Every structure is written in structure tokens, then in C-alpha cells.
Amino acid sequence: MIENMGNEQSAEQLYLELLKKAILFEIWIEHERNFPSSDNYVFNPVPEKRETGSDWPPIAHSMIGRERMNHLHQCLESVIRENVPGDFIETGVWRGGSCIFMRGFLKAHRITDRTVWVADSFEGLPLPDPNYPVDQGGVWHMYDFLRVSLETVIDNFKRYSLLDDQVSFLKGWFKDTLPKAPIQKIALARLDGDMYSSTWDSLSNLYDKISLGGYIIIDDYILPCCASAVHDFRNQFGIDDAIIKIGKEPCSAAYWRKTKERSKAVLKPHTV
Ligand SMILES: C[S@@+](CC[C@H](N)C(=O)[O-])C[C@H]1O[C@@H](n2cnc3c(N)ncnc32)[C@H](O)[C@@H]1O
Questions:
Q1: Predicted pLDDT of residue 268
Q2: pTM given for the model
Q3: Nearest CA-CA partner of 240 in 272, 263, 264, 210
């Protein structure tokens, strides 16, 4: 277990632990108070919320919190321990922190044959698409807080000295970038686009590239729109791998490991 390594931690493990603390801004969390937000959002950064990823941090480079960051770390360790082939991708990166951790993980383990794919509009969430009724009435696209430019994310990678040719950016809406992304194989896909459409577009374009044994992490499983996309996709393609919740109740995220290819069905999201 990552948390229980005590004094026996290697330099690589110590680096990754420090990287998590920096990305999550845990060390300086009290300095995040009183930050102005363009959305009138009231920040209340406290360690308990950072643990579960249930706050929107004014400064931290990821909002997923410690539980989900540790879980991501455990999945990455499992991928290399079990030789699951492929790259790592996050769809919905915000300030880039989860992807920065993935790149740091590869560097710590001196792995040079895997890429971290960083997929985002870099301009926030899309307007609800009428083809996805579940998303209608949603206001995610109105949040300036969720708009982080490509330049800012690149700059964040540079701050950790983790920007290099093992990081590839896919800028644009998932429905446009993912179908033509030059990705061969994926060992771990982290889906964090909140909406039905964003989750559906990620699953439908990436699933066939995920290796057997690979991880599919659904950050927003607690959101009914996101969970609907997951269940519709799994039902439509006969995917019955166990969905496992991440963290303490009420768990906001979940994941499964792919054990078999999906059945071939007409690729169509639910429209009613
Ligand atoms: C909740 S944030 C992601 C948080 C991030 N994973 C972290 O570690 O803090 C959601 C991100 O998804 C992106 N996004 C959502 N739907 C999208 C879509 N359909 N196409 C492109 N980007 C999308 C938004 O721009 C935003 O950056």
C-alpha cells in the first residue's frame, strides 16, 4: 500500500509523494483562503475536503483530492507491475495536475516508451448538445473557473520540469480530437469531463484502444449525467466488468478494469 510504506520508501516513492503534495497544494492549503473567484464561488479549502476532492481549489493544480490521486497512483503502479501495455490519457484535465502526476510517475520509474495524453478543450465544458437529453439544462459551460488555457497547462508542466516529448496535448472538443488522436494503445484512461456527452465521447472513442487489464477511471461517477453515460455505454456493449467505487462514502469516482473486448453494437448514445 502506498500510504503504509513508512521509512522504507525509496527516493522514487518520496519524489512521487512530494509531487502529490505539491499538485494538491496540501503543504500550503491555508494560503488558498480568501482567493477571489470569477464565478462568485466561495472557497473553503480545508484538509478534509482536499482529502476527498470535494472542493474547487483556487491554487492547486488538480481538484481530484488525495484519495483519488492515491488511487491513480496505485493503478499506475499496477500497470507497470503487470506489464499492461499502452499510454496514459486523461480526458478533462483542467490545470493538468493528474497528467503532471502521470508524467512524474513515468519519470520516477525511468519509463520512456509510454506517453501521457492530455485531452481538453482548454476553454471549459461544452454547451449541452441537443443529441444528449441528459445534459439539457446543465450550466457547466458557464463556469469560468473550469476554463484553463493550453498555455497555462503547458506552463504548469514546466513548473515541475515535466514537459517533454512524452506529453502530448489534444486540444479541442473530445468528439473532434479523440476519433483522430494518433494513440495506439491505452493502459489507463482517466475520464473527467463531467457531462454525459463528454463521458460518452471519451468511452466510445477510446474503449477499443484500452488494453486488456487496462483501467477506466470515471472521476464523476457520482454525477447522474456521467453515471448514465457509463451505464448506457456498458449496457449497449455488453461490458460487465465490476464497477468499483473509489475512496470513502459517498464515493464520487469509480473504475473498472477491462477484461474483454466490447461486443459490436451500433454506436449510438441514448437519446430519450
Ligand atoms: C472537472 S475538470 C477536470 C479536473 C482535472 N482532471 C483535475 O485533475 O483537476 C473538467 C475538464 O473537462 C474539460 N471538458 C469537459 N468536457 C469536455 C469536452 N467535451 N471536450 C473537451 N474538454 C472537456 C473542461 O475543459 C475541464 O478542463
A1: 65
A2: 0.93
A3: 263
Structural domains in the chain, sorted by start:
65-257 (3.40.50.150)
The pLDDT-based confidence of 76 (bands split at 50, 70, 90) is very high
Buried b (16+ CB within 10 A) or exposed e, 215-233: bbbbbbbebebbbbbbebb
For ligand 1, the distance from its centroid to the CA atom of residue 250, given in whole angstroms, is 22
Measured from CB, residues less than 6 Å from any atom of ligand 1 are: 62-64, 90, 92-94, 97-98, 120-121, 124-126, 146, 148, 173-174, 192-195, 197-198, 201
pLDDT-based confidence at 31, cuts 50/70/90?
confident
Backbone angles phi, psi at 90, to 5 degrees: -120, 130
- How far, in Å, is the centroid of ligand 1 from the Cα of 217? 14
What 8-state DSSP symbol labels residue 84? -
> Concatenated DSSP letters for 232-261?
HHHHHTT--PPPEEESSSSP-EEEEE--SP
> Cα torsion at 209, 188, 229, 24 (round to 10°)?
-150
CA of 60 to the centre of ligand 1 (A): 15
Atom 5 (ligand 1): residue with closest C-alpha?
93
Pocket test for ligand 1, best of 142, 192, 196 (most atoms within 8 A of CB): 192
- Please give the residue that has the higher pLDDT: either 142 or 168: 168
Interval between CA 121 and ligand 1 midpoint (Å): 7
List the grid coordinates of 82: 503487470
Tell me which residue of 163, 201, 168, 207 sits closest to 185, measured CA to CA.
207
The predicted-structure confidence for 228-261, as pLDDT tens digits, reads as follows 999 999 999 999 999 999 988 777 899 999 999 9
